[in-house]
Design goal:
Number of helices: 10
Oligomer: single chain
Helix content: 10-25%
Number of domains: 2
Shape: globular
Strand content: 35-45%
Distance between the termini: 55 Å
């Protein structure tokens, strides 16, 4: 973890900020090491390693926010950055509408480290590489006609120190691991892709190398290759019909991310994120009363669950990880909040402020926003309980409006369901809907045995843009009377 040198610089920066007139200030020191590896068509295609280190200071002066950051870790630079943050705050105050207010939080001295079974940073490179080579070879052996095969992993280690003028002193070390394979086929006028385990490829969690091993990439590679080739001649998904749809766990997680996770960001709902991220149909007047979905829909906000990509000890405002609800029994009941937005509603923050490294301001980001399991048994039980419909698996495309109401999703493959049985494979399946209507049509969610914590390491937000890492647990679920197929 970061040590006494960084802590001394942090306290120096806070002292300078206070001397210059800040009524509140915090300093964050962040060191992030990342390794990305890609195997493509049987060859090691890319190894990308980075190790970045820097610090930032936020300050409130004259009732407004200021921010500054630097990769130079010296006493003079700590003074300069802190003074600049206060200067920016005073300039911002000239156009403020009201004073910045922060909901209270108890300042703590604490440490947190992601639990890991196998630290990937202590492994030899060839130990990490071999599972990718094995999986890539298994795909090509199963289907030599594949145009492209890919296998990849990413490992992270992020050390963070947060010190505030209120007395917080929090050191954290966060680990992340992700791995994936992909098979791409071309023919019959089609281009098809299958990825595993998640949509778009890599699923990432706060864990060690055990998370990469969990997915048994080489074992699942032949199935993935076979499906990619079979999709070239599969039956086209029916167009512009209404039917029952069962979404796979990894598709439901993205549906949750886009149509629930983003609209419950309170900065969007209050309009302060409108310029880039858009707004939200879940406005504060709907909190606690709006019917978001059916009684089967329960969506948790939980940054404490082991393994989630949104799991940590404390957010980047020093607020502890917490559990709560966004949707309970179908009713919208909770936001993702910062200390400032929580104060606007007379509430306390649930700890969702996170920054993309040392050089960016913390923003409200999804932690682990998860569709909690129901009582519908296994996926096969749910299919057996469905007379007619379509099972859709693994996201391929998505589109949603800036209020998060009107959406369209496409998945990599589908299966017709006839008389309770999975029958014909379908290519290019899509579905569309309006968010409350769609979640209101949910009549069954599979049980705990089918529930998986997924991770999305590519969520964009902010100006300048930031990439957030968010977690989403989900089990397969059924939705009735859904519009399927491209709608003209």
């Amino acid at each position: 973890m970061l040590g006494s040198v960084e802590r001394d610089l942090a306290h120096r920066a806070l002292d300078t900020a206070r001397t210059r007139g800040a009524t509140y200030a915090d300093a964050r020191f962040v060191r992030r090491a990342v390794e990305d590896v890609l195997v493509k068509n049987g060859h090691l295609q890319n190894v990308d390693r980075s190790d970045i280190f820097g610090f930032s200071v936020r300050a409130i002066a004259d009732g407004a926010w200021g921010f500054a950051a630097s990769p130079v870790l010296t006493a003079d630079e700590a003074d300069r950055v802190a003074a600049l943050a206060v200067e920016v705050a005073r300039a911002s105050a000239l156009t403020k509408r009201e004073d910045a207010r922060l909901a209270p939080v108890k300042p703590v001295t604490a440490t947190y480290t992601t639990p890991v079974e196998i630290d990937p940073w202590t492994m030899r490179f060839d130990e990490r590489l071999q599972p990718l080579l094995d999986a890539d070879a298994a795909m090509r052996q199963a289907q030599p006609t594949l145009r492209t095969t890919r296998a990849s992993y990413e490992i992270w280690r992020e050390e963070k120190l947060f010190v505030s003028s209120e007395g917080a002193d929090i050191a954290q070390t966060l680990y992340e691991t992700g791995a994936s394979i992909a098979a791409e086929s071309v023919g019959n006028g089609e281009q098809q892709i299958r990825t595993y385990p998640g949509s778009g490829g890599r699923s990432q969690n706060t864990a060690g190398w055990e998370y990469a091993l969990k997915w048994e990439l080489a074992k699942n590679a032949p199935r993935l290759a076979d499906e990619a080739v079979a999709l070239l001649t599969a039956k086209q998904c029916p167009q512009d019909i209404r039917t029952s749809v069962i979404l796979s766990s990894n598709q439901l997680m993205l549906q949750c991310h886009e149509s629930c996770g983003h609209p419950i960001e309170l900065d969007r709902a209050l309009g302060t994120g409108a310029a880039f991220a858009g707004t939200s149909f879940l406005t504060p007047d709907r909190l606690g009363s709006f019917r978001f979905g059916s009684e089967h829909v329960n969506i948790a906000i939980d940054s404490t669950r082991t393994g989630g990509l949104g799991t940590f000890g404390y957010d980047d405002e020093g607020v502890p990880a917490s559990e709560g609800w966004a949707v309970k029994d179908g009713v919208f009941v909770g936001y993702l909040m910062s200390r400032e937005t929580a104060a606007a509603l007379g509430k306390t923050s649930n700890g969702t402020m996170r920054a993309d490294g040392w050089s960016r301001l913390p923003l409200i980001r999804m932690t682990n926003v998860s569709v909690m399991p129901g009582s519908a048994g296994t996926l096969e039980d749910l299919i057996a309980d469905t007379d007619d419909g379509i099972y859709m698996d693994t996201n391929r495309s998505w589109s949603i409006d800036d209020k998060r109401l009107n959406f369209q999703f496409g998945t990599q493959l589908g299966w017709e369901i006839k008389n309770g049985k999975r029958t014909t494979m379908l290519r290019n399946p899509t579905y569309t809907g309006m968010t409350p209507e769609f979640w209101g049509s949910c009549d069954a969610v599979c049980s705990e045995s089918e529930w998986v914590m997924w991770g999305t390491p590519n969520c964009g937000k902010g100006q300048p843009g930031q990439i957030g890492h968010t977690g989403h647990g989900a089990a397969p679920a059924r939705f009735r009377n859904v519009r399927v197929g491209v709608v003209n």
